[in-house]
Write a structure and sequence with these properties.
Number of helices: 10
Number of strands: 0
Strand content: under 5%
Structural class: mainly alpha
CATH class: Mainly Alpha
CATH topology: MetI-like fold
Order of helices and strands: HHHHHHHHHH
Oligomer: single chain
CATH superfamily: MetI-like
Helix content: over 70%
Length: 263
C-alpha cells in the first residue's frame, strides 16, 4: 500500500529531508575528525571550517563576487549564443549540419588545457578568459536543449496556425516558442552549474588574482586547509544559488506561459 502525501506535506518533506541528511552528514564528519583523530591536512572539521568562514568573511565574499560575476557573464553570453544558433539550426538545415560537429567538438574541450591558453592570450589583468570558458560550458547544454525544444512543435498545431493564416512570426510566438521554453530553461538550469564550475576551474590557471578558484589554490599551497575548505563551501553555496535562481525562473515561466503540447 502506497501512502499519498498532501501537497503541503510534500513541500515540507522537500525542505526537511535535505536538512536532515546534511545535519547527519556534518555530525558524522565532526565525529570522524575529533574522535577518529583524522589530521587537519587530510580533512578539517566542520567546526574549523566554520571558524574560517567567520574569520575571513570579507575576503570570501569578495572572491565569491568575482567568481559569481564571471559565471554570470559566461552564462548569459553562452546562453544567448546557444539560443541564437539553435534558432538558426532549427530554421535552416545547412546551419544544423555545420553546427553539429562544432558543438560536438566544443562539448569535449578540456577546461584545464584551455584556461591557461586564454589567460595567457588576454593578459594577467583580464577576466575575459575565465568568462569565455564559462560561456563555452554554458553554450552546449543551452544549444542542445533549445534545438530539441524548437523541434517539438506538433504538426497539428502548425496546421492549425496555417488554417488561421498566421504569419511565421505569429506561429513562432504562439506555438513554437512556448513549446520550446521548457527545454530552453532546462538547458539554462544545467548550464548555470556548469558555468560556476568552469569559472572556478579557470581561476586555478593564471589570470588575475581573486576568485574562489585561486583562493582555494593559494590556501591549500600555504597549508591553510580549513580556509581552503571554507572557500570550497562558498563555492558550493554559489553553485546552489545559481541553480536555485534558474530553477525559480523556470517555475515562474511555466506558470505564466502555457505549454501548447499540454493543451
Amino acid at each position: 500500500m502506497t501512502t499519498t502525501l498532501s501537497p503541503r506535506a510534500e513541500r515540507r518533506l522537500r525542505v526537511i529531508a535535505p536538512l536532515a541528511v546534511g545535519t547527519v552528514a556534518l555530525t558524522a564528519w565532526q565525529l570522524l575528525v575529533t574522535v577518529g583523530g583524522v589530521s587537519d591536512y587530510l580533512l578539517p572539521s566542520p567546526a574549523a571550517i566554520a571558524e574560517e568562514l567567520v574569520a575571513f568573511a570579507g575576503p570570501i565574499a569578495t572572491a565569491t563576487l568575482i567568481t559569481g560575476t564571471n559565471a554570470l557573464v559566461g552564462l548569459v553570453a553562452g546562453g544567448l549564443l546557444g539560443v541564437g544558433l539553435a534558432a538558426l539550426a532549427a530554421r535552416w538545415r545547412p546551419v544544423d549540419g555545420m553546427a553539429a560537429p562544432i558543438v560536438a567538438a566544443l562539448a569535449v574541450v578540456p577546461i584545464v588545457a584551455l584556461a591557461p591558453v586564454l589567460n595567457s592570450m588576454f593578459g594577467a589583468d583580464s577576466q575575459f578568459g575565465r568568462q569565455a570558458i564559462a560561456a563555452l560550458a554554458a553554450f552546449v547544454p543551452v544549444f542542445l536543449n533549445t534545438l530539441r525544444g524548437l523541434r517539438q512543435t506538433r504538426p497539428v498545431h502548425r496546421d492549425l496556425m496555417r488554417a488561421y493564416a498566421a504569419t511565421g512570426a505569429q506561429s513562432f510566438r504562439a506555438v513554437t516558442l512556448p513549446t520550446a521554453l521548457p527545454y530552453l530553461l532546462t538547458g539554462v538550469r544545467i548550464a548555470s552549474s556548469l558555468a560556476v564550475i568552469s569559472a572556478l576551474v579557470a581561476e586555478y590557471f593564471g589570470g588575475p588574482r581573486g576568485g574562489l578558484g585561486s583562493a582555494i589554490s593559494t590556501s591549500a599551497a600555504t597549508s591553510a586547509y580549513a580556509r581552503a575548505w571554507a572557500y570550497v563551501a562558498a563555492s558550493i553555496l554559489l553553485g546552489l544559488l545559481f541553480y536555485a535562481a534558474t530553477a525559480l525562473l523556470e517555475r515562474l515561466v511555466a506558470r505564466r506561459v502555457p505549454d501548447p503540447a499540454r493543451t
